[in-house]
Amino acid sequence: MNNPLTSPWQTPYQTPPFNLIKTEHYEPAFHHALEVARKEIQAITDQAEAPTFNNTVATLDRSGEMLGSISDIFFNLLVCNTSQELQELAQKIQPELTAFYNEITLNEKLFKRINEVYEQREGLNEEERMLTEKSYRNFIRHGAKLSPDEKKEYNQLTMRLSQLTLQFSDNVLAATHAFTRHISDEKLLAGLPQSARDIAANKAKAKGLDGWLFDLTMPSYQAIMKYADDRELRQEFFMHYSSRCFHDNHDNSALVYEIASLRKQIAKLLGFSDYASYVLTERMAKDKAHVYELLHTLEVPSRACAEKEMQSMVDFARKMGFEGDFERWDMSYYAEKQKESLFNFNEEELKVYFPLDKVIEGVFGLAHQLYDLDFVETKEIPVYQEDVKTYFVHRKDQIIAVLYLDFFPRENKKGGAWMTSFREQHKTAQGENIIPLVSLVMNFTPPTADKASLLTFNELTTFMHEFGHALHGMLSEVTYTSLSGTSVPRDFVELPSQINENWASDIHFLQSFAQHYQTGEAIPETLIKKVKEMENFQAGYLSCRQLSFGFLDMCWHDEAEVNPDLEALEHEAMKVVDFFPRPKGCCTSTAFTHIFSGGYAAGYYGYKWAEVLDADAFSLFQETGIFNKETATKFHDCILCRGGSREAMQMFVDFRGREPKVEALLKRSGLL
Description:
Low-confidence stretches: none
Strand content: 5-15%
Strand order of the largest sheet: 3-4-5-9-6
């Protein structure tokens, strides 16, 4: 009764009471919530009334609310504010949760009721029909039609898989933070900007060290790779980053094979030839043929462009005195030098106009201009870490969401950037709208004692990307949790995020907020023009890099047997869009959290698929004016507010007036 996770939350808009939650609260809370959820499921199956949408499908969607709330808190904190205790508890709790959700989809009485509603779905409205069809397919895809022996096998396979994906993620986090490099000789820092040195000095000071401390978190790692004149230092960092979890103390090399094998076994048990075929039936792509068609369609122009870019880069490096073989750890360094030479541009010159507080104003201001959103910072909302910012999100005089912003790296936080939720928007059975609790987690350049957090242009673009996901979650206006916000096909979910990136280099957008962090001087127009000129710098190479990850993902999840030699497997999968010899001892897969623990298995192609969607969709903004309110309203009405309540392709057609065309992406990227 005194557990804050299971007691009513006396907080604004029933936000999680992070200030009260302790690690010891989770396990009893999970067990209590599982008991409650099981009773809710039993109430559905034991009722005497004939199955209807309301008493079966809708009631099932609303069941397990307490369990969902606890899970959202626990698993979000597991990746952004973790501890050894949380990781150990996850290994105990995850199998129990997997077993519970298997109980639901393998429940014959419950499936029978779902099936009866499904067979009579034509009389339902669009959202009800979507939820019914999604629920029915979810049961089928999770073993509802298997024999008793097959259900037992399915349960065992999924239990094991859930444990391994957790272990994979824990290993990557541990390996990322296992390596630090203490530098006491300032000569090794030649080429590094003062901002990177200051951050490294602060890290060293925090550890009681003199000098500078660098690690594998993105701001630190990228500073070395882009600016360090010392080639051996760049190579050292590259090798440590690129060999994470590969024959080290946090080895994932056996896990990737077992995870892939388990997925294939599950797919075959359910009647599919491979895991990719199983996954893609629920994606816009529908099948492997369409995925490979996209990858190969983009591969040809991307590679042709990249080959020219690489030759230009090597020639440039030679003129600077570079000798020997051009390696991966040379790429970012000489790219930065070539960018400076071609465009008279230095990243540090731009960063001073992107202090984080002003960037926040700019991102919020664009959301106001396009979608009538206003953001009011509040200290009323409990947070899980002291530097997390919280906002009430207003639209047309109503609070429609709570937004959490978590910006900076820390040792108990995984790398990268992502949008997540502590609660999805939905409506109660009585029709009350429950607002979403949306969170953005990033790993941006942190402030120092005497300098604000100054973002790179890439960090600004990342913020815009993740904020696009946040808009999708915050603007949701559906009835059912399972259709809310980002609950859409994985190759559609990146459309709102990637389209939002398009404003990042617009002159009017940048002029609306970008000011020098010391003088308040507005960003010079000449600097903005340089940003625009650089938009397609190395577009071919960057496209090939994304395509290589898509090919690698499909290699792991297609029907062919995977090569037992991990380095050879990766070389074979990625060689068509790779431009470097693969250094011995490096491995992408063992730290590829997107596909081995992040939900993008057989779905990494979705970034390029959604790029096609976003380029084509944004072309309508370009035709009407990128700040055109009518076009923004149409994007809101057709896509952002609908969640998964309509078929993804239909939502795109509703907005664009036709199905997407790849030409818009090729043109925007300069690949035509």
